[in-house]
Amino acid sequence: MKQNKYLVVGVALVAVFVLAAGVAKATHSWNGYHWARTSNPFTLKLGDNVSSAWDTVLNTTSVDWSKSSVLDTAIVVGQGKTSCRATKGRVEVCNRTYGNTGWLGVAQVWVNSSKHIVQGTVKANDTYFNTPYYNTTAWKNLVMCQEVGHTLGLDHQDENFNNPNLGTCMDYTNDPASNQHPNSHDYDELATIYAHTDNTNTATDGIGKGKPANVGQDIDLNDPSAWGKAVKQDARGNNSLYKRDLGNGETLFTFVIWAN
Prior knowledge:
It is a single chain. Strands 1, 2, 3, 4, 5, 6, 7, 8 and 9 form a nine-stranded mixed β-sheet that branches. The chain has helices spanning 2-26, 52-65, 126-129, 137-152, 184-193, and strands at residues 34-35, 42-49, 71-77, 90-96, 103-111, 116-125, 229-233, 239-247, 250-258. By secondary structure, the protein is α/β, with parallel strands linked by helices. It has one domain (31-258): Collagenase (Catalytic Domain) (3-Layer(aba) Sandwich), CATH 3.40.390.10. It is built from five helices and nine strands. The protein starts with a helix and ends with a strand.
């Protein structure tokens, strides 16, 4: 009987270790970067600079991420203008025909010296979305949802395009049909990222410790040469994350989804 008891305990311990390893592997926080706030849930403004063709997509993304227990998103009048200039305390969302850049979507996130997100932009490239292959609700939902997800502090759950879909927009895929929205793990990860509160609020227009450098007015941030150093690649070998040092401990990160 003792041997059986020890066997059961041993199996249980192995199961615990396997489960813990699986949870750790599944974690997709983006280095713990997050918006500072003094309480949950907090509201993050999404500046609407998109055309009518993207209004429904932006609304879907906002509703999806607002299902989180720790944050809500609110669509407000955009201030990004033609260049999709960042506005402190919010995320400006834009679509333009940016040209044959190779990228479908870009999320740019400014982090201050306290390692808190202070502003962001999301850009969808209509040069590709105006083509029959990408001009679908599924592709638009995936790209918009994923890029906004990055501005919340999330990384990808999986970066192999050929793996089976995980049912989340935070998953690289060749077929976005079932990857248009967040899944339960995205919400769980947000709850983990925002489990603690801060003594300041960077998700408020014009307020927040550590004013970011005014990058974007005199530098073309639509151009990869202005994104800084590539620090991560996707499974196809394309640079998927760039880092630019702005000085004074401040950093600009650029996440990229490349066209096939």
